[in-house]
């Protein structure tokens, strides 16, 4: 149970801090760098904190890859993805709950020039940090999420086997870099739990876009497992020969 709670809390941190950085900067000039760092540093801190307990996945695509690599049992895989989706959904609910306070802040008041906006109006207009792509860009969105998720999960699978590398920091910084690249195209999700949770509260096209995001991310995670097995096997063989 400790492992599942750790996955719940780590995913809550990742989604809550990451999407919160998008939602609560809506009234000011947003920077792709600050959004990317919010996600990347949140992930690094979550892995440092909960990694020794659960391995620090916080992403169903990562857990699927680890299960295929036999680094996670299929029983635990089921428990992990339930914990991850629940953690993400609770995080989006928390971000939604904070909108009322955000609307009362001086930043929003200044941006609205004294006009008022309800929580539902704000969420309808700004969203909750959901990942979106432009109309007609379905194939491009699938390709971006597939390729970048594949690279992300592959890096995780390799660096977590290296003893001389600060894996949490490398993973967090790599996520930040990938988000900067993909933010204008897909929002840079690379995580089915992160894709689903804000879409539940926003609805509309965000839910329809899940038909692109989630398959791309899970297929990429599965293929990354086979690539990781190849590279890790090669590394192990070299170590034995040495």
From TrEMBL:
MF term (GO), any:
water channel activity
Q: What is its subcellular localisation?
A: Cell membrane
Q: Which UniProt keywords apply?
A: Cell membrane, Membrane, Transmembrane, Transmembrane helix, Transport
Q: Name one GO cellular component term.
A: plasma membrane
Q: Does the keyword Transport apply?
A: yes
- Please report the record's description of how this protein sits within the membrane: Multi-pass membrane protein
Q: Which residues form a coiled coil?
A: none
Q: Which InterPro entries match?
A: Aquaporin-like, Aquaporin_transptr, MIP, MIP_CS
Q: Name one Pfam family in it.
A: MIP
Where is it mainly found?
A: membrane
Q: Where are the transmembrane segments?
A: 7-27, 33-56, 77-103, 141-160, 167-190, 210-231
Stated family: Belongs to the MIP/aquaporin (TC 1.A.8) family.
Question: What name does this protein carry?
Answer: Aquaporin
Q: Which organism is it from?
A: Leuconostoc pseudomesenteroides
Provide the taxonomic classification. Bacteria, Bacillati, Bacillota, Bacilli, Lactobacillales
């Amino acid at each position: 149970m400790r492992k599942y709670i750790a996955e719940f809390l780590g995913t809550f941190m990742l989604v809550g801090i990451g999407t919160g950085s998008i939602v609560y900067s809506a009234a000011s000039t947003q920077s792709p760098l600050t959004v990317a760092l919010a996600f990347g540093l949140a992930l690094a801190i979550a892995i440092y904190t909960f990694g020794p307990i659960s391995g620090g996945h916080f992403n169903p695509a990562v857990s699927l890859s680890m299960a295929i690599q036999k680094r996670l049992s299929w029983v635990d895989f089921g428990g992990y993805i339930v914990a991850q989706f629940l953690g993400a959904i609770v995080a989006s609910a928390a971000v939604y709950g904070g909108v009322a306070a955000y609307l009362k802040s001086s930043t929003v008041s200044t941006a609205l020039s004294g006009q008022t906006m309800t929580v539902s109006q704000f969420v309808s207009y700004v969203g909750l940090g959901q990942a979106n792509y432009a109309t007609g860009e379905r194939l491009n969105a699938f390709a971006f999420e597939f390729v970048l998720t594949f690279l992300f999960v592959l890096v995780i699978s390799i660096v977590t086997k290296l003893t001389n590398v600060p894996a949490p920091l490398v993973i967090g910084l790599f996520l930040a870099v990938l988000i900067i690249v993909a933010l204008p195209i897909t929002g840079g999700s690379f995580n089915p739990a992160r894709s689903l949770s804000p879409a539940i509260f926003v609805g509309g096209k965000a839910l329809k876009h899940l038909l692109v995001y989630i398959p791309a991310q899970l297929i990429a995670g599965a293929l990354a497992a086979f690539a990781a097995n190849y590279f890790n096997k090669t590394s192990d063989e070299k170590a034995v020969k040495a």
